[in-house]
Amino acid sequence: LNVPVTVTGVGSLACIFFTPNPVQNYTDAKKSNTTVFAKYFLHMLDKGFYFAPSQFEAIFFSAAHKKTDIDAVVSEAKAFWNQK
Questions:
Q1: Which pTM value belongs to this model?
Q2: What is the pLDDT along the chain (84 residues), one digit of tens a residue?
Q3: Alpha-carbon distance 15 to 24, whole Å?
Q4: Angle in degrees, CA 26, 27, 28, rounded to 5
Q5: Among 18, 30, 39, 48, which is least packed, fewest CB within 10 Å?
């Protein structure tokens, strides 16, 4: 979608940063657009997806998440960016 987002992670943990730049440390992370993250968080919450309310917290994936679950999150994330 060509949106200013960087995803970092290790194993089943991930973090979404609303910045087009690589995030390798806290200083990089602080440059993220927390205003857009807050709008994204509220949009996803309204659609039934509960993410951590802070951009500086991790997302946890597990074997309990089915492909349909992941597809639904991706679809709604696309909807968020397409409304902008």
A1: 0.85
A2: 789 999 999 998 999 999 999 999 999 999 999 999 999 999 999 999 998 888 889 988 888 989 999 999 999 999 999 986
A3: 12
A4: 90
A5: 48
